[in-house]
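Our consortium's second objective concerns turning raw sequence data into structural hypotheses that experimental partners can test. To show how far this objective has progressed, the report includes one record in full. It was chosen at random from the queue rather than selected for favorable results. The single chain below, 41 residues long, was entered without modification.
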Amino acid sequence: MELSELKRMKTLEEENGKLKKLYAEQALELEAIKMLLEKKW
């Protein structure tokens, strides 16, 4: 594997990690909203 390919792979892995974190945060927010909406006031 060439150096440029390794750099590209590292960049993609970092981007993937950021997207996974963003997805997890959104999933938590959605779950919190669902819990609030289901709560009987």
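The partners drew two points from this record. The radius of gyration is 18 Å. The chain has a mean pLDDT of 95. Both points have been shared with the crystallography group to help prioritize constructs.
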